[in-house]
Backbone:
């Protein structure tokens, strides 16, 4: 970007009054001057990108595209921390105001944990903010995982918050089948191992049956084991 400014300044200095009657000749001379200036000042490696270009504008646009600042949105915590601060303090009005100006921030992550705002609200069990965020997120956004491989649904199931679980599942059924990476357990297993049987009951009604079949992995067997343990120790509610 600094080089861009310097070259433009140099070309302004070189651009005196053109006395040539032939406008095409005048343009060709200016084009050659500009192209030559760009070629000799951009470095050997970068020159290879434009060495066959005869148009100064095309050479300029090629370099501009190649070296334009790359967006650092997803992990730019300093830019998007007002959203996380608002969620942390439970202030949905501030969070909504920020998301109105920066709608893509709904999938931004904290670099140290890879948590989204939804992960944070779920961890805090702020049901209102969770519901509002889910409305703004796409199905793919709900598949985002933190550094330990947890989706927000897995976290909600572990917490045993049925309202948050139902809210997320209404938006996406695919997340029912996504296991956490650290222990390879789907949301229904996290609910069962923590004896949140109301959540288990709900998730069992919506989890694809094939996810619990032997060929899919140990998920069905693990669920049955947790269920038997719950029966043995009398932790199951009467309706189950």
Residues:
């Amino acid at each position: 970007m600094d080089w861009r400014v310097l070259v433009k300044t140099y070309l302004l200095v070189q651009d005196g009054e053109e006395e040539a009657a032939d406008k095409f000749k005048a343009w060709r001379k200016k084009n050659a001057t500009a192209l030559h200036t760009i070629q000799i000042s951009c470095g050997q490696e970068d020159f290879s990108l434009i060495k066959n270009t005869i148009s100064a504008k095309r050479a300029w646009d090629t370099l501009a595209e190649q070296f334009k600042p790359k967006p650092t949105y997803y992990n730019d915590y300093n830019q998007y921390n007002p959203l996380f601060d608002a969620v942390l303090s439970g202030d949905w009005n501030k969070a909504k105001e920020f998301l109105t100006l920066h709608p893509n921030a709904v999938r931004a992550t904290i670099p140290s944990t890879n948590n989204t705002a939804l992960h944070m609200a779920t961890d805090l069990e702020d049901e209102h903010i969770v519901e509002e965020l889910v409305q703004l997120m796409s199905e793919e956004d709900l598949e985002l995982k933190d550094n330990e491989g947890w989706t927000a649904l897995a976290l909600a199931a572990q917490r045993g918050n049925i309202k948050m679980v139902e809210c997320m599942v209404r938006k996406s059924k695919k997340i029912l089948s996504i296991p956490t990476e650290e222990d390879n357990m789907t949301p229904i297993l996290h609910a069962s191992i923590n004896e949140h049987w109301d959540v288990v009951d709900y998730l069992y009604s919506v989890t694809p049956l094939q996810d619990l079949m032997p060929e899919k992995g140990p998920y069905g067997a693990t669920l049955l084991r947790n269920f038997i343990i719950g029966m043995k120790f009398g932790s199951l509610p009467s309706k189950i």
Remarks:
- The mean pLDDT is 80.
- The CA atoms of residues 129 and 222 lie 32 Å apart.
- The chain has two domains: 2-67, 77-232.
